[in-house]
Amino acid sequence: MFMIFFAIGYTLIWLLLFGYTLAIHGQQRKLEREISLLNELVREGTDRTVS
Amino acid sequence: MGIVQKVFYYHVASAWIGLLAFCVVFAASIAYLWKRSEGVNLLALASAEIGTVFISGTLLTGPLWAYPIWNTWWTWDPRLTTTLVLWFMYVAYMVLQSGGETEAKKRFAAIYGIVAFVNVPLVFFSARWWRSIHPIVVSSEGVALDARMKVALFASLGVFSLLYIYLLPLRMKSLELKARVRQLKSEVLP
Fold first, then answer.
1. CB within 8 Å: A42 and B3
2. DSSP assigned state of B37
């Protein structure tokens, strides 16, 4: 019975570490997309003000 | 101990990175109070977060080893208690840092980052200073391990250190991007 707990616990701990690393990568990609979209909106706003 | 002993290589390496990360928070917090640079504030925050993840790993692997050896998942031993307190202190640090972008809040977080560091040597020495059932592997007489176990331990310490070196700039970059998004949003949606 303990070995089952042990295997589950050990798996969860590795998943925590990999999950954290993947979450940072995922967040970074999402933020980069958001920044390019916001940059576009800022440019559009500037163009409209100039014209 | 059988297969349960293998937890040791994750547990110790994870604790090492946690304590190292909190040393970085301490140094970065002093640097922030001195220079007021946003970069070192992000370094402190990123390191605190990574340290908390690794200390979580330590706190989770400990009971996996403790149950078959001590016959209990958890006991209020000085080493275990100080480590749990350490974990809570750095969770509180992250809550403080997420509280706002003002200079005063960052300064307060930096002071807290310095004060919280007091617990780091306390965790390390707790098993030596107080009556503890937690094993002491590293002492003034060296590393009390079999030669082959030493190799495995140092390999795991090396790999976890590399992982920290990889994660730290990665997390800093995403915190920088987050700040940039906030800034752009304030320009687009005044």
1. no
2. -
CB contact under 8 A, A13 and B60: yes
Considering only CA atoms, which of A43, A30, A35, A36 is closest in space to residue B179? Answer: A35
Contacts of A17 in chain B (CB under 8 A): 53, 57, 163
Cα distances (angstroms) measured from residue B8 to each of A10, B56, B57, B135, B184 = 12, 15, 12, 11, 46
pTM: 0.88
What is the phi-psi region of residue A44: left when phi exceeds 0, alpha when psi lies from -120 to 50, beta otherwise? alpha
List the one residue out of B50, B51, B70, B49 whose CA is nearest residue B7: B70
- For A:12-51, CB contacts with B below 8 A are 12-13, 16-17, 20-21, 24-25, 27-28, 31-32, 34-35, 38-39, 41-42, 45
Q: Which of B53, B163, B177 sits opposite A35 (nearest CB)?
A: B177
pLDDT tens digits, B20-53: 999 999 999 999 999 888 899 999 999 999 999 9
Predicted complex ipTM exceeds 0.85: no
